[in-house]
Amino acid sequence: NQDDSDFANSMSDFEEDDIFPETQPKKTYKTEYQVLSPNNLKAKQDGEISQVSTILGLSNQDSATLLRHFRWNKERLFEQYMDSPEKVIKQSGLSLSQQRQQQQQQENDFICDICCDQVDQSIGLSCDHRFCQACYKQYVQQKIGEGESRRIECPESDCQLIVDQKTVELLMDAVGLKKYRELLNRTFVDDHDFLKWCPAPDCEYAIECAVPSTSLVSFVPTVRCECQHRFCFGCTLNDHQPCICSLVSKWLKKCADDSETANWISANTKECGKCHSTIEKNGGCNHMTCRKCKHEFCWVCMGPWSEHGTSWYTCNRFDENSSEQTQNNQTRSRMSLERYLHYYNRFANHEHSAKLDQELYQNTEKKMEEIQKTSDLSWIEDNQRDLEMATEQLSELLEKPLDSDPEKIAKLRQAVLDKTVYVKSRREILLEDTAKGLQEGRWSFFVDL
Fold it and tell me: What pLDDT sits at residue 99?
């Protein structure tokens, strides 16, 4: 109906990656990138191979071998090739002979040096090291199984001639050829600074993003793959805006190294109120005596033991001034630990909430299907993408049980819309201000980056 249509139109305004009009300036925290499929990657390789082939006057097969040897660095290839073409050709595993080999050859009474069988058909490169097709195929198949594609050398010992792509295609079956092409794509992406694989499990897409590593100190290049996985192009970790990569790396390392130790220290030790030595309570009595300075104090309130009077072993007092004074006397290391635990607990809670939200999303989809089967409402399916923006407050709304009453659903719809507007606007303000601050150098850090 018309109301549902209006709601769908209004919710579409909050899509994360809307294409903004040219008059609206680009957000500071956004980055330009392109998602590449396996076919796109092959097309990019073919384009670069064709360019090198045209400039150097070589075949596409030889140009591909040269590019892979130089890890797709065309500038370095051109420079070294112009200085010493013969040296480059030899180092790259190509033949200096201009005569191309016949991959397959019919001959009588040929004995394969690998299996020592007599065969009628052999295969080899321009080095004239020939073997039976079965042995050659098994050799190439083994190399591909080991993850090699860039430099599969001739099976002959001490021969460094490269088995080109045409020969591999002649030998391999469909399964082996698919694996070979996947490896070629992988080396192509790995050799380019501005190309990276999406880290999502079983994802075959790559991202092209022209962000130099030097800019990562002031910019967080967040991208979204075709599979909808969002990650940082700089470090390939999950989206961590607005924190820069080096800060996130230090934080994760600290969490991995210190979290368990810090939690144990916080739960099982306190500092002496006099000399600030760390003390572990390993008994049930609250009467503590510092071995270092002999100061006697209460483990519960941390006050002097002499002030407890008749309530020595049942301390129930709370003196705000004394507590504040004790807190002010904590050492810098203790304050640092408490600061870390404060942020670590928040980090861990938000991380746990994010995982629960993913489960909530799956359950919500099922509930949406059930509702649509029993009603004529369509707004949920049309706008389910907006539920992915859930934060803790928005999650609280979404976790409410859905009622079949259209009026209650309409109220819930409005509440979700209002909270979505607030969450999105606050998130954009945070990301925009942080990104500008990084680029302008306004932020200072407590750690060395």
Answer: 47
Q: Are 398 and 360 in contact (CB under 8 A)?
A: yes
Residues 107 and 145 in one domain: yes
Rounded to whole angstroms, how far apart are CA atoms 360 and 368? 12
Strand 104-111 to strand 118-124: parallel, antiparallel, or no bridges (unpaired)? antiparallel
The predicted pLDDT at position 364 comes to 66
Could you confirm whether 285 is annotated as catalytic? yes
* Same domain as 350, residue 431: yes
Out of 156, 172, 188, a domain closes at 172
d(CA 137, CA 177) in angstroms, rounded, equals 11
Provide the pLDDT for residue 198.
95
Domain membership of residue 187 (yes or no) is: no
Beta strands in 290-339 (DSSP E): 296-298
| Residue 234 three-state SS | coil
Q: What is the pLDDT of residue 186?
A: 92
Q: Which of 112, 227, 285, 301 is catalytic?
A: 285
Residue span of the structural domain in which 47 resides: 40-91
User: Measuring CA to CA, which residue among 200, 193, 251 is closest to residue 221?
Assistant: 193
Mapped onto helix, strand or coil, the DSSP state of residue 73 is coil
308 and 371 in a single domain? The answer is: no
pLDDT digits (tens, 9 = 90+) for 357-413: 667 666 766 665 665 555 544 333 333 333 344 455 566 666 666 666 777 777 777
Question: What stretches of 153-200 show up as alpha helix (H) in DSSP?
Answer: 165-171, 174-190
Domain boundary among 295, 328, 361: 328
Read off the pLDDT of residues 313-332 as tens digits, 9 standing for 90 and up.
556 555 555 555 555 555 55
Q: pLDDT grade, residue 18 (50/70/90)?
A: very low
Domain count, the chain: 4
